[in-house]
Amino acid sequence: MSNLHLKDHPTIADFQQYVRDMIAERGFDQTKDVAKKFMMLTEEVGELAKASRKAAGLHFADDSLQTDVAHEAADVFIILIGLCNIMGIDLEQAFRDKEEINKLRVWR
User: Fold this and answer.
1) Residue 26 belongs to what domain range?
2) pTM to 2 decimal places
3) Dihedral through CA 83, CA 55, CA 58, CA 62, nearest 10?
4) Per-residue DSSP letters for 70-103?
5) Is residue 23 domain-resident?
6) Among 26-35, 39-48, 57-66, 76-85, which stretch is predicted with the lowest mean pLDDT?
């Protein structure tokens, strides 16, 4: 039985703490290797791409597993947060900082 609980209206910091707690609760906290976590992120992005392709009605093998796009997107988010946690990145602050840079760019 899990003791994890995510607030009803979580901040990005809440998600980051939840993922820290989840990783510890499930015994995954031994993996602090950035390269391994990045490979996991790449794998999950591939699964999201495949699920999105299927959802868009593009061709795929009949024996291919059906996947849920939303679940695959959540997996990408979880792994990304885990990677940020390993690297000491405050994802909310990084988002804010990067968006201030993006606001100053000329988009074509």
Assistant:
1) 12-103
2) 0.85
3) 100
4) HHHHHHHHHHHHHHHHHHT--HHHHHHHHHHHHH
5) yes
6) 57-66
